[in-house]
Automatic annotation (TrEMBL):
It comes from the Bacteria. The keyword Nucleotidyltransferase does not apply. InterPro entries: AAA+_ATPase, ABC_transporter-like_ATP-bd, ABC_transporter-like_CS, MetN_ABC_transporter-like, P-loop_NTPase. GO terms for molecular function: ATP binding. This is ATP-binding cassette domain-containing protein. The keyword Membrane applies.
Length: 280
């Protein structure tokens, strides 16, 4: 099992109810995208699944365990099996890329190896291979603060793939990438999930990327699940309804790439249906 939520809710410290009555089950190796307008609760949901936040209502199981009933040591071991890709990777700026990649395995390595990796690159070949998947192998010994936002985001993805987690959580993982790189990076994430059997749960701003790469899509709005469907059963009107508060246009990556963007929702619907079958 990847994770299971039963009637889960999350109320933030200021009393704001970011998630309510969320029931979801994602199996081992399953690939699911969550989409929804700004403020829908996508990041809150991913933080809940990553055990950064604790549900204030309902039940959460991650990789077969209720994280909040585990001992401190067991919770640490569970977290080492979850790889979270953040929209802005929390990487100290002066760190070298190779060390940032190695940090992905800190939770799995014995303490001595983790400490050694901070002083001396212990697995250059492994870090090189992870970066090569994102065309960044030549940046291995670069300092992270010398990378562009898009390069840093790809380092964040490479770090999680290097970690080899059982559950990959990705919060807007390609938001800083241009359309071609975003597509390639999602392809790598999907390929890794297929290769390793890790479950992949990603929030995506671009609806067309979600449709292209994921066989199951969850629509979230106002902290509630509006739909949870196989991609093939999603209709354009469901998508437009989900984003109704943001206007007639669906957020799509393809629009940026397509010459002559359109303001016609029907034409946009055609754009997002383009080439959505690969990778699923
Ligand atoms: N720490 C917090 N304290 C209080 N409210 C919060 C906190 N974090 C998020 N929220 C609120 O919870 C709601 C959901 O936020 P969240 O970041 O989960 O949405 P999102 O769907 O990821 O949005 P976006 O697509 O804009 O990133 C928002 O209204 C937000 O203001």
């Amino acid at each position: 099992m990847g994770f299971e939520l039963e009637s889960a809710g999350l109320t933030h410290g200021n009393g704001f109810r970011a998630l309510q009555r969320v029931s979801l089950r994602v199996g081992r190796g399953e690939r699911v995208a969550v989409i929804g307008p700004s403020g829908a609760g996508k990041t809150s949901l991913i933080r809940l699944l990553g055990t950064a936040l604790r549900p204030t209502e309902g039940r959460l199981d991650v990789l077969g365990a209720n994280p909040w009933r585990l001992s401190a040591g067991a919770l640490r071991r569970l977290r080492a099996r979850i790889g979270t890709i953040h929209q802005s990777p929390p990487i100290p700026p002066r760190l070298r890329v190779v060390t940032a990649i190695h940090a992905g395995r800190l939770g799995r390595w014995p303490a001595w190896k983790g400490l050694l990796s901070l002083l001396y690159p212990v697995d250059v070949a492994g870090a090189h291979a992870a970066l090569a998947r994102f065309d960044l192998a030549d940046r291995l010994f670069e300092r992270c603060d010398r990378l562009s936002g898009g390069q840093l985001q790809r380092v964040g993805i490479a770090r999680v793939l290097y970690q080899q987690p059982d559950l990959i959580l990705a919060d807007e993982p390609v938001s800083a990438l241009d359309p071609a790189l975003a597509d390639a990076a999602l392809g790598e994430l999907v390929a890794e999930s297929a290769r390793s059997g890790a479950s992949l749960f990603a929030s995506l701003h671009a609806v067309d990327l979600a449709l292209k790469w994921f066989p199951r899509i969850i629509g979230l709005r106002g902290g509630e699940v509006v739909f949870d469907l196989p991609t093939a059963r999603l209709t354009d009107s469901m998508l437009h309804e989900l984003y109704a508060a943001e206007g007639a246009m669906l957020p799509v990556q393809a629009r940026d790439a397509a010459a002559g963007a359109t303001t016609d929702p029907e034409a946009d619907a055609k754009v997002i249906r383009l080439d959505t079958s690969r990778g699923r």
